[in-house]
Design a protein that fits this description.
By secondary structure, the chain is α/β, with parallel strands linked by helices. Helices cover 37% and strands 15% of the residues. The strands form 4 sheets. It has a 7-stranded mixed β-sheet, sandwiched between helices. Helix 3 runs parallel beside helix 8 and helix 9 packs parallel to helix 12. The longest helix has 18 residues. The chain is globular. The two termini are 23 Å apart.
């Protein structure tokens, strides 16, 4: 079977370093808000070219705290997309604000900058864009709108560790960048973990307080916060993995190029990398009019695939109130066509050739 992600190979490559990192934490006997987290926060913020990194429990909490600590609250509006993991939108709603959906670019599947301005109102406080699948959103037009209308820019970079827009790391371009270190991510922990990055010192302090019960000093609470802390073991593990991130991303890009080459003559639509972008292929997503049958065909041949995402957020049961309000034709169309193929740094040339050959076989008979 060809796995979607091969955790065993990933672990085997750096097993000794991981074990030493974990042992280091146990030797110190300090498991929360300690030296490993401080060092990882510095290393990851440096990697992204920013001053501050604040480790939290998950990418979902990173997004939520980005909204909450920014002073956005009930009645405010945040412009975002519906073709994303639901945690993007959950972060907005949990804060009491209202999500305002815009459609996506049909080639990159990221926010369409041309759709934004018509949705801006007096209540709009921020734009929360998503660098989906590891593919950067077109940032310049969005930054222009943020200046014109005085809007906060929150980058959901949970799938885009190391991706670049015009040579600059995504997550470092707007006001706040949010990352997830869920195990499947390009930089993944062995459990839940996340981080917020920013150059804004005032916001960085708020994030630190909010993640730790709103306390500056133990048992002295400035306001009501939450418990959302990236623990020492995960921080130690992520410090090891960060050293390999660029190399692993380059391997993903090579694998994507091979997929592109082998599927070039087929009638599936392969991912697009715009001239402004460095795509790091957290996911390699193709499109097919006959997606469901193709998925079944690959499943029968022991090729593990997924759909990211089969239902737009605004059409899910949790957000049915928005279904009647929004018509997002591109978003609604592609969710019936997209299919994520196996993609990770340990995928072999032979495996990619086998997958591509099976896709070609299916297309010639269907």
């Amino acid at each position: 079977m060809i796995l979607f992600i091969n955790f065993k190979k990933a672990y085997a490559e750096i097993k000794e370093e991981i074990q030493k990192a974990i042992e280091r934490v146990f030797e110190r006997q300090w498991f929360i808000l300690g030296e490993e987290l401080e060092k990882f926060e510095k290393e990851f913020s440096d990697y992204n070219g920013l001053k501050y990194g604040i480790g939290v429990n998950s990418g979902s909490d990173a997004l939520y705290l980005a909204v909450l600590a920014s002073g956005i609250s009930k009645g405010d509006e945040i412009i975002t997309i519906s073709h994303t993991m639901t945690s993007t939108v959950d972060a907005i709603v949990r804060s009491g604000a209202k999500p305002v959906f815009v459609d996506i670019d049909p080639m990159t599947y990221t926010m369409d900058p041309l759709k934004i301005e018509e949705k801006i109102t007096m209540r709009t406080k921020a734009i929360m864009l998503v660098h989906l699948y590891g593919n950067p959103t077109d940032m310049d037009p969005i930054l222009e709108l943020s200046v014109k209308y005085n809007l906060l820019i929150i980058e959901d970079a949970c799938q885009a560790h190391g991706a670049e827009y015009k040579g600059k790391k995504v997550g470092s371009i707007g006001d706040i960048g949010c990352f997830s270190f869920y195990p499947t991510k390009n930089l993944g922990a062995y459990g839940d973990a996340g981080m917020i990055v920013t150059n804004n010192e005032e916001l960085a302090l708020k994030f630190k307080l909010y993640r730790n019960y709103g306390q500056r000093k133990r048992y002295y609470h400035n306001f009501i916060g939450i418990n959302s802390r990236l623990d020492e073991i995960q921080a130690a593990i992520l410090r090891v993995k960060l050293k390999y991130l660029d190399n692993w991303n380059n391997k993903r890009r090579k694998n994507a190029n091979l997929y592109d080459e082998l599927l070039e003559e087929s009638n599936v639509i392969t991912p697009i990398e715009k001239e402004y972008a460095k795509h790091i292929y957290h996911l390699y997503v193709i499109r097919s009019k006959n997606r469901d049958k193709l998925k079944d065909y690959l499943d029968k041949h022991e090729i593990q695939t997924y759909i990211h995402y089969p239902i737009p957020v605004h059409q899910s049961k949790a957000y049915l109130e928005y279904k009647k309000i929004y018509k997002l034709p591109v978003t609604e169309r592609i969710c019936n066509e997209i299919l994520s193929l196996p993609m990770h740094p340990w995928l072999t040339k032979e495996e990619i050739e086998s997958i591509s050959e099976l896709i070609q076989q299916f297309l010639t008979t269907n």
